[in-house]
Amino acid sequence: MNLRLSRALGWCVTRSLLAIAVVVTLLPFVWLVASSFKSNEEFFRSTFLPMREGSWSIAWERLSVEAYRRLFAEADFATGLLNSIFLSSVTGVLATLGCAMGGYALAKFNFRGRRFCTILVLAAVLIPGPLLLAPGYQLLYNLGLLDTFAGLILPAIAPAFGVFLFRQAVISGVPTELLEAARIDGAGEYRTFVVVVMPLLRPMIGTFLMITFLGVWNNFIGPQVVLQSADKFPLSVAVAELKRGYYSDYGLQMAGTVVSILPVMVLFLLMQKDFVSGLAAGAVKG
Amino acid sequence: MNRATGTVTARAATAPWVFLAPFLLCFGVFTVYPLVQAVVLSTQTTFGPGATRFVGTNNFEAMLRDPLFWRACSNTLIYTLGSLFVQLPLALGLALLLESPNLRGRSWLRLVLFSPAMVGVVFAAMMFSLIFEKRTGLLNQVLHAILAPVGITWDLDFGWLQQHVMLGLVVASLWMYVGFNMTFFAAALQNVRRDLVEAAIVDGAGPLSRFWNVTVPAIRPVGGFVVLMSVIGSFQLFELPYIMFSSSAGPDNRALTIVMYLYQNGFELGDLGYATAIGWALAVVLVGCAAVQRFLARGEEAGS
What we know:
By secondary structure, chain A is mainly α. Chain A folds into two domains: 2-64; 68-285, MetI-like fold (Orthogonal Bundle), CATH 1.10.3720.10. Chain A has helices at residues 2-36, 40-45, 66-73, 77-108, 114-124, 133-143, 150-153, 160-173, 176-184, 189-200, 202-218, 221-226, 235-245, 250-285. In chain A, helix 1 (2-36) packs across helix 14. The two termini of chain A are 46 Å apart. Chain B has a domain at 66-121 and 167-303: MetI-like fold, CATH 1.10.3720. In chain B, helix 4 (106-114) runs antiparallel to helix 7 (165-189) and helix 11 (258-268) packs antiparallel against helix 12. The chains are: A mainly alpha, B mainly alpha. At the A-B interface, helix 1, helix 4, helix 5, helix 6 and helix 8 of A face helix 1, helix 3, helix 4, helix 5 and helix 6 of B.
């Protein structure tokens, strides 16, 4: 009886703690979306959605999409959205290709300099990004790449940690016998990579595409330093500008944040299985 | 084929280099060269990227005497310790809760708890700057509402953004990263050996003793990794306070962090040299932390 009681108690405690965690996680999202549909006066009157006096029904007529209309009409968020999509997808595709190639070479080829390159990749992970901020900015200035998309994309086409991740993925996922077989069948090195290796790396490619896309989408300090013209700003910088230019316009700021987060969330829900498990697997193996 | 390393020799000797070309080019131009320049720049004073003047070790001497630099260091350290000692135990706790037997909707829960990690720090900062507002902010309203029944009156004018800046930053970081770190602990918990747990139960070990003697040793390697990642991430805190305080260091520099001070010097005042010196200070600390973690991990491997 005692054992059963303590089991039941444990059941209640774990479930309520998990419920609290879920509520704490989701509440800011709910509040964000609700606030984005409220006018400034309404923002001061109600916490979540406006309620009718003395009843439990929602006063829908006091909600509006005005903030979203102004976001696209006045603050030109369509441009920001397009810039973010362009930068994230181009960088994502190029970085995935560059890292897959590099990782494959380090994992499967026997050549002079292999050890040296592997050490380079491992050492590079230790260099903190902020250290390279000022010299990198000076370099882009000298190359004439300030205020261009190329200045953001080129430095990101083959990050060392990606090469490392793909090296691990190739070691564990691409049997050398298969490469040998492809050679006996007369396939060239590049054909082998595209036809044999890439398909075997599919899970890692999905995960890494997602990681890079997200990383670029959420990157603020890079575009903030490199870009100067407002028509080139991605959403991360555009949202921060919103806070500067419309500092007391809560609805507009919230709507801008919703528009910035929503595409990423949808992508996440579509690809979540690969992504979360891929991340965790990388951590355990690394 | 080389059996020992599982590698093949390319028929064309150039093939591996062609595959490595994007990495080597990108790395050489945008990492190695700036790294060398970082040494040069740290001995210079600059006025924007074009005009430089050699000053020797002046930047480092000035930095060590600069009260704002030390302010930035202590703020960053407080944030790092705060997020480490609050965040990681919570993350581990959540991972353990998710392991409870017969839990329905486990993968759904994991997904929900992980979701804040998808939100960029900039966007989270936008949210939290309004969540922390006096009176209208979500946090003060919720605390007021849930503490009222227990007889505590939470001050609706509690100034998260005015007086309790560091507390606010740690609270925001909890929302952003607990679920993220939980994922790593959850993966590590898969390494706990069921037979050892059962043997411990047979031996009459209670839940606490099982946790210390069976679970903790199994998750220790991943734990070390998560601690290191958290320290590295926390030391580079910038966007959260920068956006939250509308491109400033907050009231009385309460939210000034190392990277923010680097940014202010390099890109608001135009002194890339001093900014780089601050960058070196950060690099030394972070590489030191990584070395300590490696050393401890190695000692453990040798010990077991």
